[in-house]
Structure formats: C-alpha cells, structure tokens
C-alpha cells in the first residue's frame, strides 16, 4: 500500500470529487436521507454527508473501515481523536475569524492564534498515539505519518517560531493617556500603575451585598476606530516585533499539512456515525460488523431493524421489533406479504438499509449479518402522478421498472414496494410475475412487497416472508415476519380494509 493519505479510502484516488456527489436515487425510498442527516447533524463540516454518497465496491476497502471503527469504539482511542478534532475545530474557527476581519494587524494576530491551535492539537496526538496500541492499518499508518511530520524539521521550526513570536508579542507593554478627546500612546517605561491602588480602594464593596450593575459588553469581532488607531500606534512603537509578525504570517501562510487536514475531515465520518449509533445501543439495540462475502445472493441478518424507524421509537421511548432474514443457495428474491400496516415496507427498507450501510463499511443495525456488496441499489416505490410526464401512474411505473431492469446487473439489489397496485388484480399479477421472472433470470437479489400471495411461490428463487398477526386477534399486528408460505389472506385483508369490511368495522356496525 502507498504511504498514508486517507483514513477512509485504501486508495486515495477513490475520494476524488467527493464534494460534487449527490445522494443516490435510492436514498429517499430507503429513508437513508433521514438517517444521514441525523448522523451529520451538528457537525461543523457541512459537506460531511458527501462521504455517505460513495459506496465501496471491494471487500478489502470495507474491512479497512471496519478495523478503524473497531479502534474508535475504544474509549481511550476515541478520546484522543476527539481531542485532536476539537483542537482543529478551534483552529478553523480562528482562521475563519481572521478571514472576516479587514484590519491587517488584527488578521495577523488571529492567524498566529490559529497556527498555535494547530500545533497544540498535532503534537499531543502524536505522543498519545505512540503510547497507544492500535489494531487498524489506517490509524497505525496515520500515527506513523503524524510522528514523521511532528518530528520533522518543518513542524519543529513552526513550533519554535510560534513560541518565540508569542513570547515577543507578550513582552509588548504600552500606556494610553486620555485627555478629553485626545488619546496618546507611549511605551511603558516604569510609569505608575494605579490599578492595584484602585482595586484596594473598592475592595471593601466586594463583600457587601448589593445590586449587580454589571453590563455585559458585546464582543464585536472588529475593532472600533479608537482601538484601531491605538494598535497602529503600538505597531509604530515596536516596529521590529510587528515586522517579525508580518514575516511569520507570510512565511507560514501554507502551514497546514494537507494529509493531516484531510484526516481531520475524514475521521468525522467515523466519529459522527459512532455517536449516532450510541443512542440505539444505549436503548438495548445491537449493531454488528457484517461478514462481507463474494457469494452473490448470500444474505443473512439477525435482529435487524429500520434505523429511521428506530430513531423515532427511541426518542418516543417505544419498543422496536427486530426481524431476521436470509437467502441461501438458489434463493434470490424476498417476496413479502401480509396485512396492511404490518411492517412490510419497513422490512423492505431494513434490507435495503443494511445492504447500503454495508457498502460504506459501517456497523449495520443487526446483531449479526452476512452481506454482499452490490454494485448499485435500485428502488421502485409508489410515486404520485405528475402532469409533467403526461403518463398515467401505471405507465410511469412500467417506464421506471424498465429503466431499472436495463441497468441492473447480477450484483445489484432491487427493492420494490407494492408496485403496480394501481391496476386490476389480474393485470398486477401478470405484470408482477413477468418482472419477477426477469429479475430471477438476471440473478440479482431483490425484495418484492406485494398483496399478491401467488407471487411468493412463483419460483424456487423466491422466499416467502409473511407478516404475522396475533393468534387470538388477527387485527393486531406483531410486526414480526416468518419465513413460510403465504397463507392467501393478505389481499383479502387489504380488500376488507379498503371497502370497510374489516372485522373491527363490522363489529361496530352490528353493535349499532
């Protein structure tokens, strides 16, 4: 492997153009947009979400991230990195403030302060990482890079010069004489300091209980015109120090090492995701590192759950139902059936979410999982009719599924949710069977949510997943799914709900 460049990508070129990426088409249907927004919320890097838009296509690249995640799960390692990230955040804030100021000397002062923050962040991290046992190749390589950089002449000179510069600036002392509207600035040369005498005079008032008349003064970033002129006078009184300040700012304007800056940005991908998952693990939900296999179609998960739904459930204090699913051998398609509001769409989203998060090298919401890396995830969910296409709802659905099937490969995943429900039962069954036949011929993994139980037994590649209800009360959903043949009641229940013939509705009518 080449010398360290990235904590996210084994091959740094894989991160090229990351800031120009947009969310994949499947994001909205799988609620991945909500999940990513939740993950990156509050992070200072407004483009951090872009890293979630580039899936990995190689098992080794996923393993690289898994190992970094495992290191950062350790409290001692994470604390070191978070301290460094905090120091770099301070540096950026100071640089940002310097960039917003117009007075040259004030800009230079904040620039020096920013450089000092960088040195104070990098040097301690180098020392701490040298004393820490790391398992991941990525963090070990970064630790070696950082040690080489901090021990190098460039950084040593920067630290020495910043120390000398700050020491010189701290030696500057001056006095300000105010006479009416006239302000005179002079070097301090042993003139009397009345501050201690004034403090002693008013000390007796400090112990007495009195109304607090303090007024909080606003801290404006810019100096006022008097402060500016005072600073200009001080610069004239100490020309050598301020000449050295300007030379320092010019010489070190490109002080920030590109690789360290890239690490600071990229490592937030890991820290933000771990912070996000901690909310769920604290509530008893489990995450795991999936076993990534090259065996196309081999998919397995235990105690899997929808992350977007989990966020709402945890916030509301509700219990979340987890589910298992698996494909093996010739199996390729999950056909999910069951009553309305039974969790069918949620299970479909869960499968899609796990597949996508696996491509990011992230821990997935399941106690255990075996997954393949898809080359793409396609979704076919219901869309509202729009006049812009000049087509009906069914026409639009057919156009979209044709486009998906023309692009999908055996390594793709297709998630379809109640497709073709806008037409008759017979037509929906015929179209659905034709689409499933093409998906099976393609050999890719698919999830097909439907009310048509016949599709669950269409082919031996289909696995029937049925949403269960309470045994003693069929109107109550359990949100658990069982791998068993469809029982033929799903569409009947849907029709009963649609036409007001559901059990609870009929009971109310009879009682009246």
Strand and helix layout:
Blueprint: H1 32-40, H2 59-73, H3 75-100, H4 104-130, H5 137-150, H6 153-171, E1 174-179, E2 182-187, H7 195-206, H8 225-237, H9 239-251, H10 258-281, E3 291-292, E4 299-304, H11 307-316, E5 323-327, E6 333-337, H12 344-359, E7 368-371, E8 377-380, H13 393-407, E9 413-417, H14 425-442, E10 445-449, E11 462-469, E12 477-483, H15 490-498, H16 503-511
Parallel strand pairs: 3-7, 6-10, 6-11, 8-9, 9-10
Antiparallel strand pairs: 1-2, 4-5, 4-7, 11-12
- Total strands: the figure is 12
Count of alpha and pi helical runs: 16
Mean pLDDT across the residues is 90
CATH 4th-level superfamily of the largest domain: P-loop containing nucleotide triphosphate hydrolases
Architecture of the largest domain, according to CATH?
Answer: 3-Layer(aba) Sandwich
CATH class of the largest domain, anyone? Alpha Beta
Q: Biggest sheet: strands, sense, closure?
A: 6 strands, mixed
The termini sit apart by 77 Å
**Overall tally of domains:** 2
As a whole number of angstroms, the C-alpha radius of gyration is 32 Å
Classify the beta-strand content into a percent band.
5-15%
Strand order, biggest sheet?
Answer: 8-9-10-6-11-12
Helix content: 40-55%
User: What is the fold-level CATH name, i.e. the topology of the largest domain?
Assistant: Rossmann fold
Structural class: alpha/beta
Task: Outline the low-pLDDT stretches.
Answer: none
General form = elongated
């Amino acid at each position: 492997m080449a010398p360290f460049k990235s904590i996210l990508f084994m091959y740094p070129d894989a991160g090229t153009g990351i800031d120009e990426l947009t969310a994949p088409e499947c994001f909205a249907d799988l609620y991945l947009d909500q999940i990513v927004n939740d993950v990156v919320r509050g992070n200072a890097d407004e483009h951090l979400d872009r890293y979630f838009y580039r899936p990995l296509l190689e098992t080794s690249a996923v393993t690289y991230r898994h190992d970094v995640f495992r290191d950062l799960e350790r409290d001692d390692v994470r604390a070191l990195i978070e301290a460094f990230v905090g120091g770099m955040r301070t540096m950026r804030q100071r640089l940002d403030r310097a960039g917003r100021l117009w007075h040259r000397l004030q800009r230079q002062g904040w620039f020096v302060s920013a450089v000092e923050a960088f040195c104070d962040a990098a040097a301690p991290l180098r020392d701490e990482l040298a004393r820490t046992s790391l398992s991941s190749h990525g963090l070990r390589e970064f630790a070696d890079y950082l040690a080489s950089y901090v021990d190098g002449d460039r950084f040593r000179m920067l630290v020495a010069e910043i120390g000398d510069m700050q020491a010189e600036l701290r030696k500057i002392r001056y006095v300000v004489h105010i006479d009416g509207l006239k302000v005179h600035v002079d070097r301090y040369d042993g003139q009397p300091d009345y501050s201690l005498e004034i403090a002693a005079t008013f000390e007796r008032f400090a112990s007495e209980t009195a109304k607090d008349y303090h007024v909080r003064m606003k801290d404006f970033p810019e100096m006022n015109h008097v402060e500016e002129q005072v600073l200009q006078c001080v610069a004239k009184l100490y020309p050598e120090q301020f000449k050295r300040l300007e030379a320092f700012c010019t010489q070190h304007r490109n002080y920030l090492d590109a690789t360290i800056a890239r690490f600071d940005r990229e490592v937030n991908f890991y820290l933000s995701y771990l912070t996000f998952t901690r909310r769920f693990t604290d509530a008893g939900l489990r995450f795991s590192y999936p076993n990534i296999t090259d065996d196309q179609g081999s998919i397995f998960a235990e105690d899997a759950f929808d992350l977007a739904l989990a966020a709402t459930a945890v916030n509301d204090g509700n219990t979340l139902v987890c589910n298992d699913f698996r494909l093996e051998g010739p199996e390729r398609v999950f056909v999910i059936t069951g009553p309305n509001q039974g969790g069918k769409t949620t299970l479909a989203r869960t499968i899609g979410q796990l597949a996508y998060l696996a491509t990011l090298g992230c821990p997935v919401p399941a106690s255990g999982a075996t997954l393949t890396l898809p080359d793409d995830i396609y979704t076919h969910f219901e869309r509202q009719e729009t006049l812009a296409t000049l087509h009906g709802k069914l026409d639009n659905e057919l156009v979209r599924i044709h486009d998906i099937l023309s692009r999908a490969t055996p390594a793709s995943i297709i998630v379809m949710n109640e497709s073709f429900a806008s037409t008759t039962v017979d037509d929906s069954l015929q179209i659905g069977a034709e689409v499933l036949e093409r998906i099976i011929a393609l050999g890719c993994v698919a999830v097909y949510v439907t009310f048509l139980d016949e599709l669950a037994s269409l082919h031996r590649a289909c696995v029937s997943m049925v949403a269960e209800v309470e045994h003693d009360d069929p109107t109550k959903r359990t949100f658990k799914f069982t791998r068993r043949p469809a029982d033929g009641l799903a569409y009947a229940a849907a029709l009963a709900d649609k036409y007001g013939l559901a059990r609870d509705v009929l009971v109310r009518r009879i009682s009246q």
